[in-house]
Structures are given as C-alpha cells and as structure tokens.
Amino acid sequence: MASGSAWRSAARQLPLRLTVGAFFLNSGLSKRDADQATAERLQQFATAAYPFLGKLDAQKFARLLSTGEIAVAAALLLPVVPAAVAGAALSAFSCGTLGLYLRTPGMRQEGSLRPTEQGTVLAKDVWMLGAGISLIAEGITGHRGPATTALGPWRRMLRR
C-alpha cells in the first residue's frame, strides 16, 4: 500500500504529467505518418540547428522525432515511471527545442534572447524545461515509494 505522502506526490504531479503528456502524445502521433513534404520540412528546420541530422532520410527523421515524442509522452503518462525519469526525458527533449530556438537565425531579436514573431513558437517551449526540472526535483525530494527506489543512491549522494 502506498503511503499518504506517495499519494500526495502523485496528486501534485498528475495535472502536469497529464497535460504535458497528452500534448506530446498528440504531437508524436501527428508526425507518425508524415508525408514526404512534411518530413522534409521538419528535417530542414532541424538541420539548420543540428547539421548532423541532414544525413538521415527525411522520412526516417520524422519517424524518429515521432517516436521520441511518443516515448516522452509515455514516460509522463505512465504512473510507474518515476517523476525524475519522466522529468529527465522531458528536460532533454526541451533542451533540443530550445537549441533550435537559440541556433536558428530569425528566431530571436538581434543581440537578445527575446523572440521574434517567428521565434515565439519555439521560445514558448521553455515551459517544458520548467516542467521537466520540476518533475526531477519532485522525484529526488518526493516520496520514497517503490517506483523511486532506484533513485535512492542519488538521493543519499545529494544529501551529503
């Protein structure tokens, strides 16, 4: 039986995990069967910031992106995935999108982090990083239920 603290922790995480997870699931599923033109557009945009992605076939790139988004969604939506693990997946993905924002010309006002009108689409994804970091913090400092026992050594190390 889970402790009261475990239930409170799960209740605190539920709105964040459900909303962000549903967002990612929808995004990943919508890219799942991308046509050639859509796949090429996605890859071209990503390649501007991450040139190594240009080596992939556009359809393969779209499938990998879709799979990555669905994997992040699964980590968020499945309650057996520890908060810190789900948060790490979300944070990693958001760092990728923020990298696109920072590296793609025309996304930011010159000499500033402030987005241009075109950049707002990516700049707003900073919320994903905040949500991911919140889940990591919750997982590290939260309940000690069975889903988080693998994090025990990390917790002990952080307390020192």
Describe this structure in words.
The protein is mainly α. Helices cover 70% and strands 0% of the residues. It has helices at residues 4-32, 36-49, 58-77, 83-103, 120-123, 126-141, 152-159. Residues 144-148 have low confidence and may be disordered.
Helix content: over 70%
Largest sheet: none
Task: Tell me what portion of residues adopts beta-strand conformation.
Answer: under 5%
Question: Treating each run of at least 4 consecutive H or I residues as one helix, how many helices?
Answer: 7
Mean pLDDT: 87
Shape: globular
Span between N and C termini? 30 Å
Spans where pLDDT lies below 50 across 5 or more residues: 144-148
Specify Rg, calculated over alpha carbons: 18 Å
Record the SSE blueprint.
Blueprint lengths: L3 H29 L3 H14 L8 H20 L5 H21 L16 H4 L2 H16 L10 H8 L1
Helix pairs in contact: 1-3, 1-6, 2-3, 2-4, 3-4, 4-6
Considering the chains and any ligands shown, give keywords for the structure:
globular, mainly alpha, 160 residues
In short:
The protein has 160 residues and is mainly alpha-helical.
